[in-house]
Structures are given as C-alpha cells and as structure tokens.
Amino acid sequence: MEPLSLQDLALLIRRALVIANPAARRGRALAVVAQRELARAGVHCDVVLTEQPGHGAEIAIARHHDYDAVFALGGDGTVMEVAGALAGSGRPVGVLAGGTGNLVARALGIPLRISRAVPALLHGDEIVIDLGRLDSGRHFAIAAGVGIDAAMLRGTPTWLKRRLGVLAYTIMGTWAALRAVLLKDFFQARMTVDGHVFEARAAAVMIANFGAVLGNRITLGPEILIDDGLLDGCMFAPRTLWDAVRIARRMLRKDFSSDPCMMYCRGRSIRLETDPPLQVQADGELLDSTPVTAVVEPLAARLLVPHEAGRTILPS
To answer: Which among 114, 124, 160, 237 counts the fewest CB atoms within 10 Å?
Structure first.
C-alpha cells in the first residue's frame, strides 16, 4: 500500500485517543506531554490510563470508533495490546515510547522523545503491515522467539535498560550468545511451516515479521517483508564459538549466503516445538513456554510512522 502523503495525514487527524500505561517508566508524566503536543497541533485529545494487563486492549476496542487515531504510550506490551486489539479495524495506531526497550518504536523509526514523536507522527505517513498472532491470542509486530533472545530479555536488568536503552540488549544478547555456545546450551527445535517440517539442534529460533531488530543494528534474515502475508522462520544452530561469531557478522553485514548454521523458511503458519520446553518472547515481552503456533494476519495493522521512516520500511 502506498503511504499517505504528509499533507493528507495531517488533515485526517483531528481527534485522538491516548492509551497510556502509568506503570511504565514515567507513564503519567509522558501522557501529559503527549496531550500537550497534540493540543499544540490542534488535535483534540483524550487520555485514558490503563489499570491492569489487558486493559489497553479493552479501552481500544470500546473507544476507538470516536477518534481518528489511537496512540499507545507505554512499553512494547502496551503497544501490542492496543495494536492487536485494533487489528483489522482500519484505525491508525501511533506508538509513543514509554518503556525501557521500546523495540517497536525503534523498528518503526519513531523518535523516543514524546515531544518529537507526536509531530513526527502527525505529519508522517500511514503504513499497513502484517501482524503475527500466537495461539494465546497475543499479537506481535517484530518477532517471537526462544533461546538466546529470550535469555537476553530475562538477563537484562531494569537498571541497565534504563541507563543504556537498546545498547543494554545488545550487550546482554552478545553475552547470552557466547554463554550458549561455550556451555553447549542448545535445544532440539522443530518448526512446522505450512505443513513442512524443519529440525535442528539450535541456540535460537525466531518467528519474524520485521527483518531487523535493536534499532536496525541486526538483520534477522534475507528479504523479510512486513507486508507480504508471510512469517519468516529463522533457526540459528552454531556448534563452535567461530560459528557464533560468523553468524553475528553475517547478520550485522546482511550477508545471508548459504550457511549450515543458519536456516530460513517462510509461511502463513509456523508451529515451534522445543525439547526441553522453553519460554517464548514476543516483541520484548516474556510469555509462556513452547510449544507455540504463530499465524500471520495479513495487513492487519495500520500504523503511523515518521515520513522518512515510511519510505524506508515500505520502499515499494
């Protein structure tokens, strides 16, 4: 879908709902900033604070009809609650970073400062992307996975995320990868992709919708598109430290030529089983354990993005 022009989008948003998680870092204060910036742009804004997990989705479903756009302010969990609840509704969602990792905002090229993000989104583009949906009903925009990425999330302390932001994940991810290889902390992985089975003894498996993570520092695989109606299975199976270093270098350099330690496949439905069962992460949130099934919801989410980011994310 061709993004809307800057002028068209600015004219469309006159009433906005901000759903804010007060438990997120400085959530209440950031909601005040968002309301101020929207009012400064001539947009009528109502702010509703969430009270418990799942409340953001309830608010979005109940109230989105009265607004031209809905803004989700909080961590990645709050963002995906709102975006998932509005999947297929056609109502545009703006992501306002209020957490510590803010993986979705970073992937979309949205400024992390609310005072910069609001005008960038109001005078930006709309894009329509696929979402992944787990069998629990939880949606994800970027990726779900097990192994190194989940270990990285479990092992990154809150104080380090607050101090270093996404760099904390990069540091802990590197440590988790080295630890997995040195201790031979592998697991048996089985991916069933549209009926086709792929198996390996792996260190990490991801079901990806976005091609890059951690502020575009790491590219997960070749030609992973967010609007092709498919999810991408990415299986990483290093055996030695050199294997791990080679995989990391290839992902940093976007080199996805044939490699026995890297396996890729894509489909509409991906079931992941592991032995032993492992905890799953989705867009930076730790969830239940495997087995898990992810299905794609094609072009389910309409998102606001800064003008330049819209051209980069959907270059076609």
So the answer is: 160
Strand segments (E) across the chain: 15-20, 44-49, 69-74, 93-97, 125-134, 139-140, 143-147, 187-193, 196-202, 204-208, 212-213, 218-219, 231-236, 262-267, 269-275, 279-282, 285-289, 292-305
- CB environment 161-179: b (16+ within 10 A), e (fewer): beeebbebbbebbeebbee
- Note the pLDDT tens digit of each residue in 119-177: 999 999 999 999 999 999 999 999 999 987 665 555 555 555 565 555 555 555 555 56
Q: Which residues on adjacent β-strands are paired with residue 270?
A: 193, 294
**For residue 63, what are its two tokens?**
């109230």
Query: Hey, which residues does 264 pair with through a beta bridge?
Result: 234
Angle between helix 27-40 and helix 114-122 axes, rounded to 10 deg: 40
Q: In the beta sheet, which residues pair with residue 218?
A: 213
Q: Which domains occur in the chain, in start order?
A: 6-133+299-313 (3.40.50.10330), 139-297 (2.60.200.40)
